[in-house]
Fold these 2 entries.
Entry 1:
Amino acid sequence: MSAKQVRRGNSWLPYALIAGNALLLALVFWQATTDWQALRRYSQGPVRFASLQPGTLAWRQPVLPAEYAEGSCGACHHEDMPQTPRLNHGRQLIVKFNCIGCHRLQDSERPAMLGPDLTNVGTKVSREWIYKWLKEPRTLTDANGTVTVAGVSTDPRMPKFRLSEIELRALSAYLSAQHAKPVAPYRFSPHVVTVAAKGGDPADQGQIRFNQMFCVTCHALAVDRGGETTIIGGDIGPELTKVGSKVKPEWLVAWLRNPEGYLEHTRMPQYQWSDQDLYEVTQFILKKLTDPDLLKDVPQMESPSEDEIQLGQRLFVEKGCAECHAIRGVQPRSNFAPDLSALGMAAGPYLVQVKLPRKESNALHFVPSNVKQLDISVSKIPKFMISYIQAKVTDPTSVTPQAHMPQFHLSQPDLEDLTMALLSMSGPPIAGTAQNSLIIERPHKEFHPEGQVGQLYQRYKCYVCHTFKGYGGTLAPDLSYEGSRSRREWLAQFLRNPQTLRPTLTVRMPHFNMSEEDATTIANYLSATLQKPNLDPAAVNEKEFTDQMAAQGKQLFETKYACQSCHTIGSSGGYVGPSLNNAGNWLTPAWIEAWLRNPQDLIPGTIEPRQSIGEDEIKEITAYLLTLKQTPAEPNAAVAATAGGGSRHWLHVWVYLSLPVRTSRPGPAGAGPGIIAFL
Amino acid sequence: MKAKPHTEGKEYISFGTYGSEIDWNNPDRILPLNYDQAQGKRIFYQQCVWCHADTTPAGPSNRSNVTPDPPLMNDGAVLNAVSDDSLRKIIALGGSAVGKSAMMPPYGRSLSQDEIDAVVAYIRVISVSADKNPPAKTN
């Protein structure tokens, strides 16, 4: 065969060779540059693209429906933003209900304590009570099965597990056998008992003391108001309406004397009790906060048998109790429940624009949503992520009958906010990309003073309600700059008798019966350490103020700026801001001047608007405010006044603002705790 | 060159609202809010509700402590007669700047222009006059 023949007869061959090679090259090139992972993720199963709304395919639409739009903000913004009140509330709910106990969640770390440590629970409650609690973890019920106040159900955080009779008996047997560290009974001297009996019923005396100490700041009580049951009090500690039928008397006394002796990580402060007070308050709790019918439907149970205890111990781990409750010697199982740290991804992939080197500049970022771990694929309900989440939280058996997950009771708005927070879960930040800088870290830095103050800080649990440099609770004012704001003498006196100086505001600070030494130590620390930078206390000389300036200031206060619309002086004025009756003893001149210049600079987010007040006017108003002084009332007189109910609606105000409450009208979309600090 | 996932050639428009508010004059009606109105609601409940509503999230209202009585924000008969510009001016500069009571402080330095606009947008939603929107009939 000549070369010519080859050329003529088989002229397609070289072309085919070239084309074939080119095809091969193209294939290799495509393979090399294709994000196979992405393709695979996109083509996997129907669940991955679970729709957000009935009838739409979410993956064409990487945004959430408008009512859940705040969840999209949360995909990148891990800090709380003022524009997303519902998302912030949803995140608070995740913390409140201890979702982190079983699920891995973005931005959440396991706290030291989730549910109470049960190592010694046998010394606290009876087997009958445990049985009742496990069967139905609610103590307050009305005809409908639950008491709701302003649309918020008053259920405790403990969800309801669906347990059989055998399981209930076994678990209650196991738990009631937990008494490694017996409670040493505390004997009141007969003298205390006789003195208490002289003043009338000790339980009545105890009730007065209970109110005076403001236990309701943290503990709620159900009260009857005109035939309607309402809840008054906070939710930092458990609700106490029927606690007298729950706890053993010797345990209650030991607990009140030293809470950390029973629970290492408790938030309950250690009060400085006199024996008299302790006796009367325990009498009140054990005699008045009771319900004789509480345990009436609990069957008679003998002392637990060894078999029941064995089974109970196994169930304790199997049911997931150990994920929230510690018992010495019991190890929780790891990865108990599905990882939800990227749940938002399962509801429709977020397109995250990541700045990478030029070659890969339009990278799509996919986060494994772990959606395979969820039982959404076997659910009977439509497979839309939002309805799936909501069904799962409120009634997991509606998804799959054999679900492990317990049942939570949430109001509809709470459920929606919680869903929103779950939908914002976008997985861990991508290492080595620009996304890291998008995420603003939450201030996790703990604040613990050293030395003697540190011990007092722990004993009185200041951080449970107050914020210190970004650490602590938001119930009470931020004390990060308290040393610049308040005078030392005022602080020392206030700590000893919190009601005296600002009765409308401070009903919520408990009465710790603090010794003078403790109060002075804390006050010295606050004024020496917690100072606002750039606020020179010596910049304003009080002595320069004249009576004439003060008179001018009064004029400005009352007429030009009409401050009395929000602040009370004397007995008239508004109560949006704090009463200024004792401003001269309370506030430092440098703070008042700085505050009048720019309140938001001192406390970001405070609602007092920044005004254009001239420098001379600032001096005059400061001079006026410093003349406002009150001699502190006798502790007992002040206590009597507040206990008389004069401030009752303020207590209510506080309760309202501190709880993430939504009213039906007007409905604050998460008028969060931020406001109360500045009211 | 990146693999583009296969997509359908159809666009979906998300529906729903950014929030809702119960009609102050008629508790049976729920008013949908758009984004600006929802932001306005948030600011209103932080800053304004204390004096411009009869009940507040905290319970009692500060309205009775202020003279003359501040207008209620659902009082359409009063508010619908005021233009958006006037509302913006009163919020930003305070009552004294427009010849009204100094009890209304100026918010121009603590709220941004956008935030004030959002509040005005929200006011327009709730300030429906009562006659336009009769209360639900009760049997």
Entry 2:
Amino acid sequence: MSGVRVLVGTRKGAFILASDAKRDQWNVDGPLFGGWEIYHLKGSPADPNRLYASQTSGWFGQIIQRSDDGGKTWHQPGTPPGEPTTAPDGTPKGESNKFVYDGDPGTHQWYDGTLRPWEFKRVWHLEPSLTDPDTVYAGVEDAALFRTTDGGQTWQELPGLRGHSSGASWAPGAGGLCLHTILQDPSNPERLFIAISAAGAFRTEDAGKTWRPINRGLHSLYIPDPTAEVGHCVHRIAMHPSRPNVLFMQKHWDVMRSDDAGESWHEISGNLPSDFGYPIEIHSHEPDTIYVVPIKSDSEHYPPDGKLRVYRSRTGGNEWEPLTNGLPQRDCYVNVLRDAMAVDTLDSCGVYFGTSGGQVYASADAGDSWSPIVRDLPAVVSVEVQTLP
Amino acid sequence: MIRVVLPVHLRTLAHVDREVTLDVQGEATQRSVLDALEASYPMLRGTIRDHVTQQRRAFVRFFACGEDLSHEAADVPLPAAVARGTEPFLVVGAIAGGS
């Protein structure tokens, strides 16, 4: 029987929530990696038993974890427990948590206008290849794109992105200079989209060798030139696999749409009560049905009026309806972060999101009604969903 | 043998449940002890020292014999009691490192 597995990253560990296709009874497994910040977990589209997790800590830095059995057991790639800790040639293992910029890292802009050396801090987002379980992209802070092709044992930077002529001008947003969104075009393996706070969106047509900014149409009042080529605080981009030229973006302010693979963007905020927010998601079977969670403002990181409302557009933007059934409609002041919303691919599309208050809400009817799977986890950073056969 | 006490999260990563003992070649210094630790437990690479610079991570501290050795140079000999194995070398997560 088919089912779903919800992968939840929190400030203090990971949790795996599992259910059959009815999605009304859940098993909660965790915390995994208790005490560590789990920025992201994601399963391979090519092998649902292959999971990757970004485990990070202010004390001990970056760890990559991998599971080959759907999350039952985990290990640092290249050094499975019980195996020799050196390769036959004597080379030490344990390179899976090594993220080193290619060549001389150079500098980027700091908040105060000075130049700072690029410094690896953590992996924000792991995006497994659509076709190969051993290939994974990693979006990191300070913003760069890394890739492994050996199941996470070693990671190499794709330096063309950071080497773009604008790279030295990138500056961090409040959350850091992070590369948080990685989208793969299922119709063209050479094409990737990424987004960086606060540089903007970029696209490659040659599998990551060269990149160019795709920010025309964005308008950001917090930078000197509101329509600059780079410098926009993009919070999240979403793409439906059936229509890879259409992109939806939640920006620092403004919800945006592109119908030409990012060449140009136009605003679709319409009747939203606030167009500030973090996540944006697309219905798995209806490419013009999209979801956002409006947040009051860039300093008031909670829902307007204390009401937690997901907004759904069935028209590809501009016309939005609040989804409130089962969500708290008074005294609610949680946030929903950029990677903390996901959809399943069951016939009745499931939608999931996690909050800074530790709730994970699920809807088995495309958002018409919601119920909490769990209420009291640590603050949720990321939510991903696997639809299991 | 050198005795090393790891913080709980690094013991979990290293799959050990108590202090570890290391056979350190030559003089016992921070560098030689950490080299031996990482050779035996490569999953700890990068968690105590930076992968490239080999500098101590900002929120990791080294204690031994009631002293904070964190700011000692990496090649300064450790106290004789640590070298003899009568006192452990402690790797500690700094009180300021978490959230």
